[in-house]
Amino acid sequence: MKKLFYLLTVAAALSMSMAACGNKSKSDYCQTGSQSEIIYDADAQLDTLSYAIGSDIGLSLHLNLTGIDFDIAVLKDGVRDQIDGKAAVSGEDAENYINEFLRNKYQAYRMAQYRQDKVAETGEAEEEVELPELFDEEYTRNDVSYRFGVNVADNLVKTGAPVNLYWFLQAIDDSQNATIDTIDETLAITREQLMGALMHYYQEEIPARNAELSEKWLQEVAAKGDVKKTESGLLYRINNPGSKKFAADSLSRDVVRVKYEGKTRTGKIFDSSYQHAQEIRDMIAELDKNEDMTPEQKANRKNMLEQQLERTEIIEFPLNGVIPGWTEGMKLVGEGGSITLWIPANLAYGPRGAGRDIGPNEALVFNVELVEVKPYEAPKPVQAVEDVEE
User: Fold this and answer.
1) Distance (Å, rounded) from C-alpha 351 to C-alpha 359?
2) Residue 85: strand pairing partners
């Protein structure tokens, strides 16, 4: 995936909705908080979770991204504007801007900070290390703060995590006054309560809700007239049957070459050979516009990218090395054909999920073109060496 560099530790926390929001719509975002509400209470789980998520993000901004003097008021404006649908920049633009800022400015700052700390620790006589300025005309404090807020909210909205926005933003405020040693005293909940709320959400709420929503989704798919179901629960539709050449090895040792796109049940693309290949084609096209490279450098770079494109556009793997839904599904279509696979979580990544985009107990859908089947060939026995008489 092309996500470059995201330091906020709770990106994964913003991944599912919580039933405590009742019937409120996403646009309401459960903004029911008031200063008189109890935060940590058995009857206020949503407030607790909202405060915990806000604290985790706020602490990451404050303690992990040391040296960035965020304007928290502007950052919160970015959060509100994105949720209200009136942000000055798109979520994608905000993320790209943040990644460039972290790469172009903050990385150099942290390196200088590391050298400063080393000099202070060892007492080595070096030239004084100056920290570079983080903000300039391209990356102003206002722009950086606002776009971080938009990016945080964009993850909330995209992943459908309804929170009590009052306590979410209050926690971001509170966390700016904390140190590693004073979290319990600074926040409205203790570190233990914060971690307990997040762990309950990750380990119980999210898996249970994903399982429920995935099962409902698969039932709706199964009701379609052109979809078939195997004994394992795999749902599939043959879009093009292809030839009579199938992956047929009983131990699934055949190798297949495919083009594919994988989505979550919400339609989010989490992996795509088509997308990866297009990104490389775009890089090749941009070479002609590059005025900093010599013709020889361009030719070498183009050759490297073309080799990468060849490996990326069509992916090759043995069927015993992928998730069970793929192993089973790729035996249902002939070479040259195409198939859609709706894969239950137990035939995909199960209760652990995979990465940032695939949560625990998530059912998935893949559209696959089977370009080629390479039947398994047993290794030939080693020829015995005849004894040589002296």
Assistant:
1) 8
2) none
Mean pLDDT of 135-139: 94
Whether the CA torsion 139, 145, 150, 151 is positive or negative: it is positive
**Do residues 42 and 116 make contact, with C-beta atoms less than 8 angstroms apart?**
no
| Confidence tier at 24 by pLDDT (50, 70, 90) | very low
Q: How far, in whole angstroms, is CA 161 from its chain's centroid?
A: 15
- Average confidence (pLDDT) over 300-306: 92
**Hey, what are 145's tokens?**
């703060």
Between 128 and 6, where is the model more confident? 128
> Which of 15, 151, 45 is closest to 91 using CA atoms?
151
Judged by average pLDDT, the poorest of 38-47, 117-126, 311-320 is 38-47
The token pair at 29 is 């975002």
Give the burial string for 249-275 (b: 16+ CB within 10 Å, else e): beebebbbebbbbbbbbeeeebbbbee
Q: At 226, list the tokens.
A: 């052109």
The pTM (predicted TM-score) of the whole model is 0.70
Residues 6+ apart with CB under 8 A from 241: 333, 334, 337
Quickly tell me which residue has 């015993």 as its tokens. Answer: 320
CA distance 213 to 265: 9
Structural domains present in the chain: 11-209 (no CATH), 224-278+314-374 (3.10.50.40)
Q: Distance (Å, rounded) from C-alpha 107 to C-alpha 131?
A: 11
Q: How confident is the model at residue 205 (pLDDT cuts 50, 70, 90)?
A: confident
**For residue 192, what are its two tokens?**
């233990």
Q: Counting beta carbons within 10 angstroms of the beta carbon of residue 197, is it exposed (0 to 12), middle (13 to 18) or buried (19 or more)?
A: buried
Judge residue 125's burial from the number of C-beta atoms within 10 Å of its C-beta, 0-12 exposed, 13-18 middle, 19 or more buried: exposed
Residues 6+ apart with CB under 8 A from 62: 175, 176, 178
**DSSP per-residue string spanning 28-61:** TTT----TTS-SSSTT-HHHHHHHHHHHHHHHII
